[in-house]
């Protein structure tokens, strides 16, 4: 593990790797070229260009996809799930990391692959000097992979996986990474609607509510890995609402799990 040092708009590693900082948001990925091919045009577009104008002038499909995502998430009505996550983040005294955050919460460090959603979340701080999370301030944003986060183990008082595990290729790996980032005595907050898409998560990587619950109880492995955080209360089922149009709203039943690492 080596620290990242800022030099102008670049984060430099002792190993020679360089990572760009765009609009104050660091992009820390092993496959930087692959991400740039997909998201680069949106990331490099000036922030003061209207999203609809950019869509009309671009044949770049991520621009259209990201505009749709912003429309859905930015106008999402308040729901029991969103209120629960926001309250849990605000109640934490130490640093909070949201993996796969999207717009996320203002009081957390937000990590996602989607640059447009991170920028729309209006980060208030974004200087990153070390990989252990110490220099990250509440409200900062970082482009990175939840399956390969650039932080040392035990860096955060709370790690949040809000509706992420059913929308990634390797949920067991993502949960293992989240578990490892929780500091002793800290919390892991997981929410999941189990809305799997076979084109994103292969059927043999998908899981049931029972499998996730028993793993966080310490009674079974999750994939090939045993979590170290343990459930501190029974799982909840909370409603999460997304507004797709003026007259269309989707309601999801989401399981909420709260686990703690022993001190």
Average per-residue pLDDT, rounded, comes to 85
**Oligomer designation:** single chain
Instruction: Note the main sheet.
Output: 8 strands, mixed
Helix content: 25-40%
The shape is globular
Radius of gyration from the CA trace? 18 Å
What is this structure's SSE topology?
Layout: E1 4-7, E2 10-13, E3 18-22, E4 25-26, H1 32-44, H2 51-57, H3 61-74, H4 80-90, E5 96-99, E6 109-112, H5 115-120, E7 141-143, E8 156-162, H6 171-181, E9 182-192, H7 209-216, E10 230-231, E11 236-245, E12 248-260
Parallel strand pairs: 5-6, 5-8, 6-7, 8-9
Antiparallel strand pairs: 1-2, 2-3, 3-4, 9-12, 10-12, 11-12
What does this structure look like?
- With 263 residues, the chain is α/β, with parallel strands linked by helices.
- The chain is 27% helix and 26% strand.
- The strands form 2 sheets. Strands 5, 6, 7, 8, 9, 10, 11 and 12 form an 8-stranded mixed beta sheet that branches. Strands 1-2-3-4 form a 4-stranded antiparallel beta sheet.
Short note summarizing the structure:
The chain has 263 residues and is an alpha/beta fold. The protein is 27% helix and 26% strand. Strands 5, 6, 7, 8, 9, 10, 11 and 12 form an eight-stranded mixed β-sheet that branches. It has a four-stranded antiparallel β-sheet with strand order 1-2-3-4.
